[in-house]
Amino acid sequence: RTSMMLFTRDLRVRDNPALAAACRAERVVPVFVFDDALLDGPFAAPNRVRFLLDGLADLRESLRELGGDLVVRRGDPATEIARLAQETGAESLFLADERSRYATRRLSRLRDLPLRVTTHPGVTVVPPGDLAPAGGDHYRVFTPYWRAWDGRSRRPIARTPPSVRLPAGVRPGPLPRFADLASGATSRDLAAGGERAGRRRMADWLRDDAADYDRVHDDLAADRTSRLSPYLKFGCVSPRELDAAAPDGFRRQLAWRDFHHQVAAAFPSLATRDYRPRGHRWNLDEDAYTAWCEGRTGIPIVDAGMRQLHAEGYMHNRARLITASFLTRDLGIDWRRGLRHFNDRLADGDIADNAGNWQWVAGTGNSTRPSQVMNPHRQAARFDRGGDYVRRYLPELSDVDGPAVHRPWTLPEARRRALDYPPPITDP
Ligand code: FAD
């Protein structure tokens, strides 16, 4: 008997329940379909395409080591899967359970094929929809969700990858080149994708930094958070494995991630809908928006965050909060424009997490507690006390010592004029 394993955002061989189930058949066809509908849309940002291709090259190598290969196709997933089923005689299809609007549509088209289709958990720790409030429909607020999430029993972890036997005569097909999929440059210091790189990162972070997470995760200069978000985005590491190994403060962040996925599944318009009162006016100042995107607002802590995003395709969570708050609260610019800019650059850019967080910062969304404004000066004093984070990302201020780097406008006139750095565009 032959089965198919459709990889989507679960690019790993370890602790991948759908792959393990597919491999119980005598023969299995592991496949990834480059979906034109996604490649033509905002998903195809250069950093994410690069990260995806790294992940697929790594997955192919692992599947080869396990006795199989990765079959690569391009087109509409349902059409390509139907064709492969015909070619190989496969009778069943396995894939990860995912509930975004796009994934739900894809699944319903796959279910129309003459195949037994089974989904398995693996994208989140607790699948969206598994937890519901007593007597209610969906969780809208995090704290009760976290309590239920924390108390929920867990599936066992499958640490050993399965062996993979391909049916005879399947043509694996080449991986496309980056230039076939995306245009534009990737970030200079983008991390390498893939399960091997992700597992190395996970092991290093668990060994060196995890125990201190609660104390240091907000310290911008220390940079000691896990940086696992793009690996989680593409499933190169298993969230379930992290949940079993990491301290509670970190598990709470994983619960935030699950929460956003749960909310996005329950309220699919989350990414676009603005819940502000009718008549609310956004500031349409293009110059201010461009200054924000380019990290030239003249507020060093904001600019450092935006430059980190540009240089690495990643930004520290505290800087995401500060830059997002500055855009929406101080400049009064529509959060959806900020979301789009983040999504163009973030290797971990994910519609549920990005929109959920932007809404939270902008004080819209379904949270009952509109959050407070984060004053960038106070944030800088608290979370980049010595100014090292700013100096790391703003070379034009690297000679300004100590916390004075946060207020270059207070430097003596001559010194200030010698810096290639703009005055603040607003006084937050
Ligand atoms: P760690 O502190 O090591 O956290 C571990 C993991 O928990 C992260 O990898 C991530 O998967 C998850 N996590 C942590 N915080 C959050 C959170 N607030 N919401 C959801 N998951 C979380 N995260 C994304 O993965 N994709 C996004 O597109 C994204 N957009 C964001 C936009 C804004 C405006 C803000 C404020 C936050 C956004 N985040 C997003 C959440 C968070 O900033 C990143 O997950 C985190 O900075 C990644 O770094 P890390 O892996 O070192 O985090």
From TrEMBL:
PROSITE patterns for the chain: DNA_PHOTOLYASES_1_1 (PS00394), PHR_CRY_ALPHA_BETA (PS51645)
Supply the EC number(s). 4.1.99.3
Instruction: Name all Photolyase/cryptochrome alpha/beta domain ranges.
Output: 1-125
Task: Tell me which InterPro entries the record gives.
Answer: Crypto/Photolyase_FAD-like_sf (IPR036134), Crypto/Photolyase_N_sf (IPR036155), Cryptochr/Photolyase_FAD-bd (IPR005101), Cryptochrome/DNA_photolyase_1 (IPR002081), DNA_photolyase_1_CS_C (IPR018394), DNA_photolyase_N (IPR006050), Rossmann-like_a/b/a_fold (IPR014729)
- Its signal peptide is none
SUPFAM superfamilies from the UniProt entry: Cryptochrome/photolyase FAD-binding domain (SSF48173), Cryptochrome/photolyase, N-terminal domain (SSF52425)
Question: What keywords tag this UniProt record?
Answer: Chromophore, FAD, Flavoprotein, Lyase
Q: Which PANTHER family match?
A: CRYPTOCHROME, CRYPTOCHROME CIRCADIAN CLOCK 5 ISOFORM X1
Cofactor(s) needed:
FAD
Alphabetically, the GO molecular function entries are: deoxyribodipyrimidine photo-lyase activity
Similarity remark: Belongs to the DNA photolyase family.
Lineage runs:
Bacteria, Bacillati, Actinomycetota, Actinomycetes, Streptosporangiales
The UniProt record lists the keyword rRNA-binding: no
Q: What is this protein called?
A: Cryptochrome/photolyase family protein
Q: Does the keyword Ion transport apply?
A: no
Pfam families in the record, alphabetically?
DNA_photolyase, FAD_binding_7
